[in-house]
Amino acid sequence: MEADAFVSRRTSVDTPGVDSRVTGAAAGAEFRWLGGRLLDATGGFVGSLSPRMSGEQDFAPVLHRATPETSTSVEPDSDYEGLPQGVATSTHMLAGAVAGIMEHCLMYPIDCVKTRMQSLQPEPGARYRNVMDALRQIVRTEGIWRPIRGVNVLAVGAGPAHALYFACYEKIKFSLSDAIHPGANSHFANGVAGCMATVLHDAIMNPAEVVKQRMQMFNSPYRGVLDCVGSLMRREGPAAFYRSYTTQLTMNVPFQALHFITYEYLQELLNPHRQYNPSSHVVSGALAGALAAAATTPLDVCKTLLNTQEAQAIHVIQAEAPTAAGAVRAATASSPGSRHISGLGKAFRTVYRMGGVQAFFKGVQARIIYQMPSTAISWSVYEFFKYIITKRQHERRLRGDRDGDK
C-alpha cells in the first residue's frame, strides 16, 4: 500500500498527531498496515490508528502522489455515504431496484398470509390462528405454490418503484440536510425525503398491489395475472387500480416518515461513523420496520379492503344504505357507488361496522413479522450494492489518476 497516496480520514478526532508523522515520512516511503499500526519498509513504527467497526482500511484518497512509479495493488476505501457528491443517480436506482425486488419476493408468502388475515369476514377454510398455521393450511389445502401466486406482478412493479424511491430519498435527504444542518444529519430532512419518495413509489406500486392482493385472497377466481388485470378492466374500469392510492399514501407517508427517522436515528447510535456495517443496517432496518408497521396497521386494513373489495363488506354497505322507499333501495343497490367501496372514510366506517375497533388490528402480527425482515433485507441489500458500486467506481478513478500521472 502506498502511504503517499492516502491519509487518515478522521485523524483529527481519533488519533491526534498521526497526520504529521505519516505525511512527514511519505516522500518515497512504503508503508504496511499491521494490527492497527503503520510500519515503514524497514519495519519501524510510524503510528497507530484506531480500528474501524467493519474492519475496513481507514484511508481516503488525496490529490497528490509523490512516487507513482512504485505503485502496487491498491485497496481503496470509498466514502459510500457521500454518493450525491460524486456518483450518478443511477447508482441509487440500481441498488434500490435490486433491494426492492429481493425484499418483496423473499417475503411474499408472509405478505399473502397478511392479506388473508386482514379479511373482515373470512371463509371457514381461511380462518387461521397465526402466521405459521396459515402457511401450513394454505400449503396443505391449496398446494405448495399457492403462497407465491402473483409474485411475478409484484417483482415487475417493485424494480422501478424502488429505484425511484431510493434515488429520490437520497437526493432530497442530502440536499435538505445540507440546507438545514450543513455537514450533519437532520431527522426532519429524513422524514420529508421519505414522504416525497413514497409518492413516486406508490404511484407505480399501487396497480401491482391491487392485482397481487386480488390473487392472494382465498378462492381467488383469477387464473393468472393477465386474467386478473383483464377482469378488473372489464368489470371495474381503470379506476380499480388506483382506488386505494390516496389511502395507501395516507398509510405510507407516516409509515415511511417514521421508518426513515427511526432507521437514521438507530444508525447514529449503532453506526455513528456511517461506514458499511451490515449488522447495523439489518438491526436498524428491522426495528424501524416493526415500529412503523405496528403504528400504521389500521390504515393497512383499510387499504386491503379497498384493494380486494371483499364481497361481505359490500353486502353490508348495500344493506345499510339509507333509502326512503323500496324503489330507491333497488336503484341504490344497482348504482356503481354501492357495488364498490371507495375512499378512506367509507373504508373506515365499513371496517368498524363489521368488527369494531379490534378489526383495525387484524393481521398486525403478520404485518410486523413481514415488515421486520422485509425492511432489514431492503436496507442491507441496498447498502451493500451502494457500497460495492461506489467502491468499484472509486477504484476506477484511482487507476485513471495513476495512469494520468505516469
From TrEMBL:
Single GO molecular function: ferrous iron transmembrane transporter activity
GO annotation (BP), single: iron import into the mitochondrion
Keyword field: Ion transport, Iron, Iron transport, Membrane, Mitochondrion, Mitochondrion inner membrane, Repeat, Transmembrane, Transmembrane helix, Transport
Ranges occupied by Solcar repeats: 87-175, 185-269, 276-388
Major site of localization recorded for this protein: mitochondrion
Superkingdom of source: Eukaryota
GO CC term, one of those recorded: mitochondrial inner membrane
Pfam families xrefs: Mito_carr
Keyword rRNA processing: no
Membrane topology: Multi-pass membrane protein
Subcellular location: Mitochondrion inner membrane
InterPro entries: MCP_dom_sf (IPR023395), MCP_transmembrane (IPR018108)
Substrates-to-products reaction catalysed: Fe(2+)(in) = Fe(2+)(out)
Family (UniProt): Belongs to the mitochondrial carrier (TC 2.A.29) family.
PANTHER family tied to this protein: MITOFERRIN-1-RELATED, MITOFERRIN-2
Role of this protein: Mitochondrial iron transporter that mediates iron uptake. Probably required for heme synthesis of hemoproteins and Fe-S cluster assembly in non-erythroid cells.
UniProt name for this protein: Mitoferrin-2
Species annotation: Channa striata
